[in-house]
Amino acid sequence: MYELQAVDKTFPGVHALKAVDFKVNRGEIVGLVGENGAGKSTLMKVIYGAYQPDGGTIAVDGKTVRFQNPRQAMDHGIGMVFQEQSLILNLTVMENIFLGYEQQFVSFGVINWKKMTAAARKQLQKVKLDIDPATITSDLSFAQRQLVELAKVLTLEERVDGDLVILLDEPTSVLAREEVELLFRLVRELTSRASFIFVSHRMDEVLELSDRIYVMKDGAVVDVVDHDAADISTIQHKMVGRDVDKEYYREQKQKPHGGEVLVSFKNVSDGRRYHDISFDLHRGEVLCLVGTEGSGREAILRTVFGLVTPTEGSVTIKGKDITRFTAQNGVALGVGYVPRERKIEGIVNGMNVFENMTLSQMPKYASAGLLRTGEEKALARDWIERLAIKTPDIYKDCGGLSGGNQQKVVLAKWRSGGSDIILLDHPTRGLDIGAKEDVYEMVRGMCDDGAGIILVADTLEEAIGLSHTILVLKDGEFQKRFDGKPGDKPSLYDLVHHMI
Questions:
Q1: How far apart are CA 373 and CA 388, in angstroms?
Q2: DSSP state of 202
Q3: Considering the entire predicted model, what is its pTM?
Q4: How far apart are CA 476 and CA 312, in angstroms?
Q5: What residues does 164 pair with on adjacent strands?
Q6: Which of 124, 315, 482, 487 has its CA 20 to 30 A from that of 197?
Q7: Pair 111, 102: CB distance under 8 Å
């Protein structure tokens, strides 16, 4: 059993955890939900040993412990499968599984690769992943890498006494439904040797998998709900402190788009990921690209931004042929890109909020080689107020903000610079109910301001709710176009029928 009692954690200006009680019993799957900024990430880091609490106690099997670092937590059987994944992509699978623990395979200063391969196969069998341990990790799919992460954590079985406690941080955020079902079956089977803490913003999945659910708000546990008594709407209400707006996707604010074409694709192919794609994006329109993973959606977005060069067809932005151009050209023409991996491609960790907001506009704030930081700061304060960005001040490291507030900073970066063609790649991935509503409100606001938006949505419901136009793709090819007028939108079945 793992237990926290009255755990407190404070950072400058933020009381992140407030007398939190939390318990995981042997063989139990415990859900953890809450808005971004509710304290979930801080609690996970305390459990995993990355943070040390300012008050309260932590006990493993009834014995009080205090972890100074994650290594000590791992020595007590506490492991974590990270949302952003901790694997080193240019290493082999077996090197990642035993990273930091290679000494067991070393003899006279040389690694016995045959022995490591056999040991890695044993770990991979635990997660039912039939691959060569010598495979370079970058060659695996995201779902396969997720299972390698889990196999890596399960190596703790051979190193510690007692059962494991495994933290699953948004493990399903980019998985297809069949991959989610496979992961859930595996987790249930593993409860004979491990307990799990499951963090996710997908309420249906939390209810499906968890035995008990802890609900957090503003750094405190506001409720603990048993599986049989759990209800999505009640939990959402406890998370946000209010009822979720029935007009969740702001359909009542959707207005007809204008006639001006901002982006035009004519029979465009990149030779590999998509083929013969044609569409027009109009001012004030949300155009959503729908399809399964690998359907070509993301590559089309990156083509508009200038990161992918098409091999056939023509691309125009505001009437200008840009078939051969770069991201710098795209920014100059008013294109802004909000990528799926916001922590890797969207923001720059280590730079503060105002620096991230003005990063794409540096020439605008430079004179004789010097930056006019006063103007940068004034712009940042204005957009922090406009978008209700939760940050102690403009000097806060952007990497330390919650996911929803990081997303707002990225949107502010483009909108403050005048971008009127916005590319949104899974903009609500990993965000809570309240933060998603904020993004939907911003989408409607950008359309009202005359921006055109190309969207790759996180769910089909989101695609249907937000879009004026939906294009369905399958295996890189166009399948069907749907109009999304309020009150006359396509159904989930309409989309799925053409996707698979």
A1: 22
A2: -
A3: 0.59
A4: 14
A5: 194
A6: 124
A7: yes
C-alpha dihedral sign at 30, 33, 36, 42: negative
CA distance 232 to 97: 36
The whole-angstrom separation of Cα 130 and Cα 360 is 44
| Strand 452-456, strand 421-425: pairing | parallel
**Angle formed at CA 482 by CA 305 and CA 495, multiple of 5 degrees:** 95
Contact between residue 485 and residue 285 where contact means Cβ atoms under 8 Å apart: no
Between 232-240 and 433-448, two packed helices, what is the crossing angle to 10 degrees?
80
Number of helices (H), then strands (E), in the chain: 16, 24
d(CA 233, CA 211): 18
Reading the block at residue 128, the tokens are: 């039912």
**Side-chain half-sphere of 455: how many Cα atoms within 13 Å?**
31
- DSSP letters for 325-352: --HHHHHHTTEEEE-S-IIIIIS-TTSB
Q: Pick the closest to residue 354 from 391, 403, 404, 327 (CA basis).
A: 391
